[in-house]
Specification:
The protein is mainly alpha-helical. The protein has one domain. 51% of the residues lie in helices and 8% in strands. The protein contains five helices and two strands, in the order ααααββα. Strands 1-2 form a two-stranded antiparallel sheet. Strand 1 and strand 2 form a beta hairpin. The longest helix is centred in the N-terminal third of the chain and has 18 residues. It is globular, with a radius of gyration of 16 Å.
């Protein structure tokens, strides 16, 4: 996929860890039956790009706004790639629901 130069530079074991983490994150937020190789690849590249720019560490720790020497960054949303969200829709709501079984 386009933009995978950072991925190609990684050791194979690190590539496997990245793909595993991306897959597990998506499984936590979407039904596993909806996941495809393309979606996992998009998420992997998104996570790798975030790690390279070091913003993902801030997002994981819940930082909503970050400012250094007059430059300000505001984070919104989840750790899921916008491309994945456009393909699969918004992540499932993990809140328990009450239903009735007949």
């Amino acid at each position: 996929m386009y933009g995978n130069d950072l991925y190609k530079e990684m050791e194979v074991s690190e590539q496997d860890k990245l793909i595993f983490n991306a897959s597990e994150l998506l499984k936590d937020n979407y039904d596993e039956s909806k996941l495809s190789v393309r979606v996992v690849a998009l998420q992997s590249l998104y996570m790798l790009e975030g790690e390279d720019e070091e913003y993902s560490k801030l997002k994981r720790h819940g930082v909503k706004s970050y400012s250094v020497k007059g430059v300000s960054v505001t984070f919104e949303g989840t750790n899921i790639s916008p491309e994945v969200v456009s393909i699969l829709g918004n992540p499932k709501n993990n809140k328990a629901t009450v239903g009735r079984l007949i």
